[in-house]
């Protein structure tokens, strides 16, 4: 049974993720034309496609005997909106933070998660430019692995007052409502970082404590959140909607609409309740301006 093989499967996923990181770094540090194309408002490059091919090929080869589904950013038709009819589904973002990859900020990541009936059970996030890989299996905590093979457990911070918490926000995916809301929450410090995986890694490394996503005309997708969610929650953090509900994946529509909050786990309910209240006030103010 798959649930009894998660340690073995996780080791395979980590090896594959490191291989994908090698591919991305070769493009990132080379002089190869990335052949940037627009994919419904989001850029896609040769690096995305090469890493995606490598991940799918190697997972399918190493785990050929298992009946997995595969939901990857580069292979899934968002408009089709049909769930993959499997209990166990890999959710993959071969290059999270493509804009940052193109702009060479270093803030890009590889996300690989294995979900069972819509909830992540195994996750790997690699941040190539830090040479760190974060991985988690449901119920086993989160660990960080270096290129040299050193592995240690990692936990989110224990900061528990809102005024002591540091916010990590998106570098490029921002809108008026989100900006106004973030301005009104009394965080201690604010950092702008690309890639959801990179943002969550700053929470794991205790540099920051809170990340907030608020959809506008578009929304983040399953592959943006599935792996980062599990590595955060297994490290003591929390990742829910503004209503406190768990995120569900592979539901057909892969877009994660509404307000979503990731945190170190302290003040989580207080924070999302505050955020929802502030957002309602902002929406009333914007309506009055029309």
Please give a structural write-up.
With 290 residues, this protein is an alpha+beta fold. It is 34% helix and 26% strand. It is built from seven helices and 14 strands. The chain has helices at residues 6-29, 46-62, 98-103, 176-183, 196-204, 222-233, 268-289; strands at 37-39, 42-44, 69-72, 88-96, 109-116, 119-127, 132-137, 142-146, 151-153, 166-170, 189-193, 210-214, 238-241, 259-263. The strands form four sheets. A seven-stranded mixed sheet has the order 3-4-5-6-7-8-9, sandwiched between helices. The chain has a three-stranded antiparallel sheet with strand order 12-14-13, sandwiched between helices. Helix 1 (6-29) runs antiparallel to helix 2 and helix 5 runs parallel beside helix 6. The longest helix has 24 residues, at 6-29. The chain is globular and about 55 Å long. The termini are far apart. The mean pLDDT is 93.
